[in-house]
Amino acid sequence: MANTSWKNFFLSLIDYKTEKYVIAKNKKVGVLFRVFQLSVLAYIIGWVFLTKKGYQERDDAIQSSVITKLKGVALTNATDSGVHLWGAEDYVIPPQGERVFFIITNFIETPNQRLGYCAESTRVLDGHCRQNEDCTEGEAVISGNGIKSGRCLNSTGTCEIYGWCPIEKRHKPKEAILRKAENFTVFIKNFIRFPKFQFSKSNILETNDDMYLKKCRYNETQHPYCPIFRLGDLVHWAGHSFQDMALLGGSIGVLIQWKCDLDKDYSKCNPQYSFTRLDVKSNNSITSGYNFRYARYYKDGAGQTYRTLFKVYGIRIDIMVTGEAGKFNIIPTIVNIGSGLALMGAGVFFCDMILLYLMEKSTFYRESKFETTKYESARWKHKSRELKPLPEDGTPNRQDVWKGKFIDLSRNNSEVSS
Amino acid sequence: MANTSWKNFFLSLIDYKTEKYVIAKNKKVGVLFRVFQLSVLAYIIGWVFLTKKGYQERDDAIQSSVITKLKGVALTNATDSGVHLWGAEDYVIPPQGERVFFIITNFIETPNQRLGYCAESTRVLDGHCRQNEDCTEGEAVISGNGIKSGRCLNSTGTCEIYGWCPIEKRHKPKEAILRKAENFTVFIKNFIRFPKFQFSKSNILETNDDMYLKKCRYNETQHPYCPIFRLGDLVHWAGHSFQDMALLGGSIGVLIQWKCDLDKDYSKCNPQYSFTRLDVKSNNSITSGYNFRYARYYKDGAGQTYRTLFKVYGIRIDIMVTGEAGKFNIIPTIVNIGSGLALMGAGVFFCDMILLYLMEKSTFYRESKFETTKYESARWKHKSRELKPLPEDGTPNRQDVWKGKFIDLSRNNSEVSS
Amino acid sequence: MANTSWKNFFLSLIDYKTEKYVIAKNKKVGVLFRVFQLSVLAYIIGWVFLTKKGYQERDDAIQSSVITKLKGVALTNATDSGVHLWGAEDYVIPPQGERVFFIITNFIETPNQRLGYCAESTRVLDGHCRQNEDCTEGEAVISGNGIKSGRCLNSTGTCEIYGWCPIEKRHKPKEAILRKAENFTVFIKNFIRFPKFQFSKSNILETNDDMYLKKCRYNETQHPYCPIFRLGDLVHWAGHSFQDMALLGGSIGVLIQWKCDLDKDYSKCNPQYSFTRLDVKSNNSITSGYNFRYARYYKDGAGQTYRTLFKVYGIRIDIMVTGEAGKFNIIPTIVNIGSGLALMGAGVFFCDMILLYLMEKSTFYRESKFETTKYESARWKHKSRELKPLPEDGTPNRQDVWKGKFIDLSRNNSEVSS
């Protein structure tokens, strides 16, 4: 007994159950449904797979390493500082060729500063005073150049301070001293790696020609793989004028984008360069421009320290590397196919709604589609496929169950009971 | 013929096939199923779409550029180094306003170092010796200050080394010399861009008031868009004391988070600042604190090089910008809807299980739901809708096929054969 | 009336509708379908959930902070520069322990440069000349050392320039002066944070043993959590020879990978270190190697500036931290389950195709599965379940509708009309 029931159970497991369908010969809804199916198919193939590459696994956590090198010399002759020849070791800060670097385009040099007492600058608000009491001894001047000594100097109307004297002249420069920096060139070496796919590449043209990189300049159409940029061009492509930016400084972003389809050839994965100005250009001196100070320290014969203070304005270049790689992977393919199939289900739902409730013959279709089964008739006992024997009929009957209707087809008694 | 069959094929293509359903008038399972459907709907709408914004495409590969500027001066008077006025050009390393910068809060200055022979520090383990043989000539002292000369000096119990003499005194500082750095302020300019959506923004309040940024300080409730922070506040908000950290140094992270819903207004996308201590605070001198050394080189009148060695302790500020933007996109919407619909299918599966196997009338429902078709009767030949003519009956019959049962309804012979 | 219809509507809402299935007792297709279902289940459980951890939400926007510290001294004695003892304050650029740092392994020192007139180097192409007219006065030498004065010097065949003289000798170095840098050690402190999960960790072994970190060296099997690396080992693990790289410099990437399953214990989330050479090794001097220049400025007794120019070659170490964390989340679990379920639907589709069109009894199964309903008979009026009374028959009939076939089972007239 138990063996038979287990055997039946396993046999029933490998029966193939398929859903029963009603063919409603309604051309309108049929065409609508086919149109819907074709749209879903077109959407899946055209948009999800071809355009958005939905069959690919994506990696956007790009690892990037950037090395830069500037070339160019310029001679300056400023009133305060005299003649100076600027090379990359002077105007690039920091000098070691980093991803973010600053090029001096303008500066205010204050040489021979020594610690001592002098008047605070008139341009510093907190330094203004009318009498000695306005200058609290030992208090640092807010946004100032030193510590108040306690005396108010009438000659300038500012506090006397202890600091590096002579203090820096706080005037806005009128022209960019190192304006020739426009012609300097920067060589950007970029090495990227997509960790998910173990894919590495660099942006330098793989060429046997040694001289190519010595002479070429980046050009979007003719030399797209020569990452040597003239600074003036960089700023120009960002939509600004180098000379304007050089006066008070600014910030330029060089965006290197790697959009790679790794199902294609290695040589097809190449960077796109775009340039944008990062700082907000405004008349507000707090927010616009870019400057900072540094000092060079010296000792004189007596061992006393003195220094040269530099307030440098310039253009900061920020190289930002982004990238996204895609490679065929079975999982996103299946997820997207699965979603598309589920979407077909939505189409069935909507077409059913139209067929069953909105068309003129909807009641008919509803009755075709739905069959009611109700376990309520007291007339017959439901005992797995047995029919209550009818009195007159001696011939064996078979009870056929379909959708809750039982046809009791004995010879004499043809009744349909529900 | 062929035309007709093609025509029939195309006509059959646009027939609308809909699944046949059995209505089981079982309120319990019906209510259970509706409850399940409502839960799935509530989950999709409430959680996936409203809370997790599942209708949006997300971009978390934020591009960020940070420019910092510190302000503040402090006067120090140390035994070894004398009086020194510290400005931003002195205490910020590097000075060019980078994303990661270091502020000196304490230092050990060793001036006038010249190359020569002197005793290694007693605090260096590898420098200890008892006799000359312990000091191998030409060998560098591990974690030391120079190269062993081969002599062991009895006065100190350490090897004589060739290096920059006098060597640095390796004592742990007792107080932070530049403790007034607590009052310095840092102005953090952050420019971000979400490349997927071509969306850019900066964290500076767009205001016409020039004086606002000169005077304001960051305050989470009153001035959330003034990114000027007092250093002491920064450390305090990270949960630590500035003076404690200033002694041996440490590392603070400033996290700027941009969570932007780009379906909303541009002005709603604003950064959130949070502060955390990055280094592990412990008594282990190897891992705690933050210090490094640098040197300033000078040449005397004879052209001989001498230097001042600085061992600086301080607080390193690491500005980490993260962000995530979301914008409505049809694909994630559809993927999530699709998954929800597939989930409905799971509900059908479970309710069917309950109806067909767990309820008391389950056998009845099973028989209503499943119809068996079995191609095994030898009695009739299956030839597309034709019935084998029965001997007696001359009237034309129609063979009706339904689920494998054939009703042969000739006048005399009413038989149901399966 | 209205109440009744609303009541009926609500009652109909909680009827449970289940699809009708045809059981095709076809073992072959049944087994095929079960095999397909098992494969989909195995794929979902084995691949999507266990291998790819599809039940987890992922965060790959790792926040990282790196602090480095180098130790080691070396003595050099070069012809031009004399004896020099190099400590970390000298050979690490920048000195503050950043994520990207450069170690000097070779250098060309040009001391005592003063502004003046001298001959351009013969190795600079643009400096070559035959007569004065080749040297345009005031023009900067491309890739050169100064500004052309207008004179062509016969002794060298190059233009006379105004620049820092004596100019640097542009010879390729033959051996790495600071080759002992191979024994220097770098201590890499890495702090990471996964913002989505608010999870933080550092890569330093949490130990009470102070002496452990003073003495250990990184070893992949024995000391995996001691992030102190000997430079020579770093380069060796990257697959290159330190001495080869030290000659002209190069670039090494240290990849720190954090792959964390946050459903597991905190102590299981640990970094993996791997090492790779970043620059392309080639004979091309433009692209290979790594070097830059910086200068130290001095003033003599007369206040005249002179400088020492350093062209340094070395190894740049780029510490790149990547990571990915996963933690159980209900949404990706459901999305992946949903996709799997939809995939089952594909299985049904294919098995149906086989059953209905490819097997030998396919016509039979097609007719079992699909029922046609056609609203075209003029014989009877469709009025919700009423039969047109036939003339002779006085007994009440019931019109049974199934799949568009109507059995009019009056006693006398057994007709099947479609």
From TrEMBL, chains A, B, C:
Question: What does the UniProt entry say about where the protein is found?
Answer: Cell membrane; Membrane
The cysteines covalently paired via disulfide bonds are 118-165, 129-152, 135-159, 216-226, 260-269
| GO function term, MF aspect, one | extracellularly ATP-gated monoatomic cation channel activity
| Membrane-spanning residues | 31-50, 337-359
**One GO location term (cellular component):** plasma membrane
**Reactions catalysed:** Ca(2+)(in) = Ca(2+)(out)
Major place of localization?
membrane
Q: Give any Pfam family that matches.
A: P2X_receptor
What membrane topology does this protein have? Multi-pass membrane protein
Recorded hits in InterPro entries, A to Z, give: P2X_extracellular_dom_sf, P2X_purnocptor, P2X_receptor, P2X_RECEPTOR_CS
Q: Point out the glycosylated residues in this chain.
A: 183
Q: Which UniProt keywords apply?
A: ATP-binding, Cell membrane, Disulfide bond, Glycoprotein, Ion channel, Ion transport, Ligand-gated ion channel, Membrane, Nucleotide-binding, Receptor, Transmembrane, Transmembrane helix, Transport
NCBIfam families named among the record's database cross-references: P2X
Q: What is this protein called?
A: P2X purinoceptor
